[in-house]
Amino acid sequence: MHTCPMFDWEAAWHAALYGPGGFFARGEKPSAHFRTSPLVGPELAEALLTLLSRVDAALGFPPVVDFVDVGAGGGELAFAVRSLASGSLAARLRVTAVEVGPPVELPGVRWTSSVPPCVGLLVGHEWLDAIPCPVVTGPSADPWITRWWPALADGALAEVGAPRDAAWAAAVSSVRGAALAIDYGHLASSRRFTLTGYRGGQQVEPVFDGSCDITAHVAFDACAAAAGGDFVLVSQRDALRALGLSGSVRGSGWDWLESAARAGRIAELRDPSGLGGFGWLLHGNGVAVADLLPELPPWRPNPASFSTG
User: Fold this and answer.
1) Would you place residue 101 in the very low, low, confident or very high pLDDT band (cuts 50, 70, 90)?
2) Alpha carbons 184 and 279: distance in angstroms, whole number
3) Among 94, 168, 211, 252, which is most exposed with the fewest C-beta within 10 angstroms?
4) What is the dihedral of CA 224, 216, 111, 245, to 10 degrees?
């Protein structure tokens, strides 16, 4: 990993992902490099449709209700939401995938390269972790570090999360309804340098030549404070259960087999040492978060998540 103090980490990171020949700019999709919740099965989309239906009701059932998937990758989540929607919601639903790379032709999904204003639910699923950040060495007088990384040791590296804070605050402000960030992350009490790479399903040393995805944990507390307003930060494990995904097995014969397979997928999504340890940062904008999720335990980072992407 490059350690020269004059190295411009943020510029190199941005070029490696989004510049000419960059990892995402040339059309690489996360599904080819690591397993994400939308790839497990339809259950995440089901839970988000339940959340969207609550947002829809809180908004008074507007004539058009949006689902916006920011950092959509191959559009798997957006397409699953479009495909599984039913009833009045399906008739009024507009699904938008936001991605800088080439769009994927999917029925019922429109593509754009920037976050649009919307009425409904915006989801940034593993989006914030791919926003490049400056990197500093302790000790540092950077204002973000001073506030959000209070125990940075001499000589230690740290990602400055200010660009993520700004991006999330802008996304939240673009929505009338709710905005949800789903990601792996840390809090001020557990900060550590996490920048890493992924290529072909393997965690690798990050290199800035466009050959791998480069990512780092999200400072959820800083993002939440930047966006402000009404919000909660809970675990994916708890949020999915609150949205109806419990993973019980029922029936017999073929029904039992399907139920068992579904239970296995839900268990993977709710595994506290894996995807279930992800944070869900949910902001209400014009709706009360209490109308969308019941009171749940606050999210705490799982140390095991520091080795996953």
Assistant:
1) confident
2) 6
3) 252
4) -70
CB contact at 8 A, 64 and 95: no
DSSP string, 21-48: T-TTTTT--GGGTS--HHHH-THHHHHH
CA distance linking residue 17 with residue 163, whole number of Å: 15
Distance CA 152, CA 149 (A): 6
**Residues 193, 157: Cα–Cα separation, whole Å:** 6
Per-residue pLDDT at 249 exceeds 80: no
- Residue 279 makes CB contacts below 8 A (sequence gap 6+) with 181, 182, 183, 184, 185, 218, 220, 233, 234, 235, 236, 299, 301
Q: Which domains does the chain have, with CATH numbers?
A: 9-307 (3.40.50.12710)
What distance in Å separates the CA atoms of residue 298 and residue 119, rounded to the nearest whole number? 27
- Average pLDDT for the chain: 91
Q: Tokens 């009701």 belong to which residue? A: 57
Question: Under a CB-based contact definition with an 8 Å cutoff, are residues 256 and 23 in contact?
Answer: no
Q: E strands, 109-249, where? A: 109-112, 118-125, 135-137, 157-159, 175-183, 185-186, 196-199, 202-204, 213-215, 218-219, 230-235
What is the model's pTM?
A: 0.93
Answer yes or no: are the C-beta atoms of 212 and 23 closer than 8 Å: yes
Exposure string (b/e) for 60-97, b if CB count within 10 Å is 16 or more? eeeeebbbbbbbbbbbbbbbbbbbebeeebeebbbbbb
Q: What is the pLDDT of residue 214?
A: 94
Between the alpha carbon of residue 279 and those of residues 75, 81, 123, 143, 223, the distances in Å are 21, 20, 13, 25, 12
**Residue 165 neighbours by CB under 8 Å, 6+ apart:** 144, 219, 222, 223, 225, 226, 227
Q: Is 122 strand, coil or helix?
A: strand
Q: Where does residue 228 rank: exposed (0-12), middle (13-18), buried (19+ CB within 10 A)?
A: exposed
CB 90 within 8 A of CB 108: no
